[in-house]
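Re: the pair you flagged

First of the two:
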Amino acid sequence: MTHATERRTFWDLTAHDLMTPAPIVVLDVDTIEHAVSVLVKNRISAVAVVDGSGRPTGVLSRADITRKYRPPTAGILPVTDFWQHAHLDVSEEDKRWCPDEPRANEPVSAAMAEDVYSVTPDAGVAAVIRLMRRRGVHRLFVIDRAGALVGVVSAMDVLEALDEEVDPPEER
């Protein structure tokens, strides 16, 4: 006999169950300065990049910006005019990975990673884990049938769901 209140296990979860819906995004034509502002203000390490129809075209991370705009150096990089004009409350740590002002006006598409790894909302947790592991990524886009971005599943989302399985809230 099956009860309607029967508890689902971790392995019953889908990408829809795990995802952060309506994720923060930037457009592929937005400037690097705008993307940096989004990353800093939202305290996130990466942001989905979408085209005008909401379809993912890439992902932009702090690491992408650092690789593209900062030469390898030893020590802390000086604060540039970019930060004086950005009007952001930015930590010294954040200032080290951001571009100088002349490059801040380049489009996001100039620095983003173009590899888009995605799943549909009904993909099972095993498929999500397998794709993340095989592709070596920390997040997957969740797209609808039209290809529009509806959510993001991060490795942390998967770990949080697993933690609830191991230590359910009612047993804490």
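Second of the two:
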Amino acid sequence: MGIRRKNHEKESLFAAIDQRQAEILSWGDTFFDCAELGFQEVKTAAAITSLLDQWNIPYESGIAMTGIRVTLGSGSPHIAFVSDMDALPCKSKNGTVHSCGHSIQTTLALALIRALADCGLPKKTAVASVSSLHRQKNSLTLLSVTNALPKARSATAPANRI
């Protein structure tokens, strides 16, 4: 792939994201206000699948209880983007909060899905919103990108390095 084509594709993705900036910020507010504990993200998963349904983007749901996986395109290369969607318990009026940034990860995952779909890029991309890294003793579960996320591998990382 030539440099000009790569630059054109990159600019197309940036333009697609810029064009939906207000919409993306709205999703972020929705997910921040919908803080749910790990493996209990029923409202969050419903909000995500509602958007995917509106966009006619196929997905798999119910992965590890509430997780969602989207695969766009086919062939190689395979690119994966994984986000978290769970919140932390706290002493607030509803008992949970997105102090970890997972609502932002979920919003970015949806922005990426939408931009890639709008631009028809790349050949194969898998995006997963998964439940609860907090419950795994500060270890991060990485999903294999070799076959568009069919397998899981585990790699530990200190909480301050995730």
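The longest helix spans residues 102-119.

-B.
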